[in-house]
Design goal:
Strand 14, helix 12 and strand 15 form a beta-alpha-beta unit. The chain folds into two domains: about 230 residues, Alpha-Beta Complex (Quinone Oxidoreductase, Chain A, domain 1), CATH 3.90.180.10; about 160 residues, Rossmann fold, CATH 3.40.50. It is globular and about 65 Å long. It has about 425 residues and is an alpha/beta fold. The protein contains 14 helices and 17 strands. Strands 12-11-10-13-14-15 form a six-stranded parallel beta sheet, with helices on both faces. Strands 8-3-4-5-9 form a five-stranded antiparallel beta sheet. The longest helix has 12 residues. The structure holds nicotinamide-adenine-dinucleotide (NAD) and zinc ion (2 copies).
């Protein structure tokens, strides 16, 4: 099916799709491991349902690192990145009915039409009308919805690490933020909150479960918190290397959390043997992957990826499959882009392990309920937010996040339109 909106406008200055008489600041992709803040044309209404949002908050996600590393294909120089953002409605197209100029709103990272087969099932991340990438269809047999700031593989939409952004189907893809939810809490409904929630419910975490989570970044942290929320008895978080500080960081917030530093195991022990020992010799009930397929561990996969023999490592998947108990459940939320070698399908088949892709999370399925949970203080987005930076410093933020700078977990990026920090949110750090 073809897209019902104009796709592949990843920088409004290109193809004359913007308003060159008004410029704005935006973070652009320049090549592998290279991003730059530039002045470029501001967006304008292109399709009837478009909304132009004046951005007051954005951030960086582990998924942006996959773009930074060029682990995701179909990027073009000058693409504007960023898929988590909130702001104030600046302009609305003629077909926009619900959203009003001046309202505060958060955007979902996926662009949905609200009306197709998948949108009717609330699977907004699989919308059939917002991504026209042939490459995606060929590789996956179907394609995801369009996504903001996430390469031409997902529609080529300019993202929200910018002062303004075009939001197609604004009535569908913007959620109004009430006055009692400041940007520093509401912003994360774009992605990380819905993603972590989806990881937990889609993998089927139940009361009394023991859950092991690979990756202690913001997604893994909130998946740990939401596992407890859904009744898990024990949660074991696994990280290591440059990310090892995250284990202590998350444990401070969740004292019941147990941890494994995978780069500091006793000689002869593996993640799987350690998990077996911690869980009655049998293993956890549930495993959730919140790291990514580009993070190889051993030399074999390092070289196989380097030589293009696989796009993703199977090492973490195999650890999950062999660690959980028989008929255990494994969910993959960390990004995998294509193929992997040496996948232990035997363990999965013979011992009844259920392995599920959690998908690009259909955040719109959850965002109304999660907003209510924030208002009732039943979930705490600020638990993961450690820093506030300026959009002008965003190129430096990529470097810092990429090297997993100790203490920098989830960040809030302000623009010249942002309100001062709200109570409990971090103060500005100048870089
Ligand atoms: N499915 C979705 O809808 C969706 C949405 C958002 C993010 N994501 C993905 O989720 C993943 C996590 O996101 P994030 O923002 O927390 O990223 P992040 O990069 O900040 O965190 C990833 C963590 O994984 C750790 N890690 C690396 N190799 C590991 C290994 N072998 N074992 C255990 N831990 C390991 C890293 O040290 C790091 O702390 C990323 O792949 C991101 O792209 C998916
Ligand atoms: Zn993300
Ligand atoms: Zn749709």
């Amino acid at each position: 099916m073809c897209a019902s909106i104009t796709t592949d406008i990843s920088n409004y200055g290109a193809r004359g799709m913007g308003d060159p008489s008004h410029t704005m600041k935006a973070l652009t992709w320049q090549g592998k491991n290279s991003v730059k803040v530039v002045d470029t044309a501001r967006p304008r209404i292109i399709d009837q349902g478009d909304v132009i949002l004046r951005v007051t908050g954005s951030t960086i996600c582990g998924s942006d690192l996959h773009l930074f590393h060029e682990a995701i294909e179909d990027l073009e120089k000058d693409d504007i990145l960023g898929h988590e953002f909130c702001g104030i409605v600046d302009t609305v197209g003629p077909a926009v009915k619900k959203v009003k100029v001046g309202e505060r709103a958060v955007a979902s990272f996926q662009i949905a039409c609200g009306d197709c087969y998948y949108c009717k099932k609330k699977l907004s991340s699989m919308c059939e009308r917002t991504n026209s990438s042939e490459h995606a269809s060929q590789l996956y047999g179907r394609r995801t919805a369009g996504m903001f700031g996430y390469s031409h593989f997902t529609g080529g939409f300019a993202g929200g690490q910018a002062e303004y952004v075009r939001v197609p189907y604004g009535d569908v893809n913007l959620l109004k933020l009430p006055d009692d939810v400041p940007d520093e809490k509401g912003l994360y409904l774009s992605d990380v909150l819905g993603t972590s929630w989806n990881a937990v419910v889609d993998t089927g975490v139940e009361k009394g479960d023991t859950v092991a989570i690979w990756g202690g970044g913001p997604v893994g942290q909130m998946a740990a918190e939401f596992s407890f929320f859904h009744g898990a008895k024990r949660v074991i978080l696994i990280d290591g290397g440059l990310g090892k500080w995250r284990l202590e960081h998350v444990k401070k917030i969740l004292p019941k959390l147990e941890t494994i530093e995978y780069t500091n195991l006793p000689k002869g022990e593996t993640v799987t043997s350690t998990l077996k020992k911690m869980c009655d010799g049998r293993g956890p009930d549930v495993a959730i992957e919140c790291a990514a397929g580009e993070y190889t561990k051993g030399w074999a996969h390092y070289f196989e990826r380097l030589l293009g023999m696989e796009t993703d490592t199977s090492e973490l998947l195999n650890e999950m499959i062999t660690s959980v108990r028989g008929f255990g459940r494994c969910g993959v939320t960390g990004v995998y882009t294509g193929y992997c070698n040496h996948f232990n399908i035997g363990s999965m088949m013979e011992t009844g392990v259920h392995l599920a892709g959690n998908g690009q999370a259909p955040v719109q399925k959850y965002w109304h309920d999660l907003l209510k949970c924030i208002q009732e203080e039943r979930i705490q987005p600020l638990h993961m937010v450690t820093h506030r930076f300026k959009l002008e410093d965003m190129d430096k933020v990529y470097e810092l996040y990429n090297r997993r700078e100790p203490g920098v977990q989830k960040i809030f990026v302000q623009t010249k339109f942002s309100a001062p920090p709200s109570p409990g949110a971090p103060a500005l750090t100048k870089l």
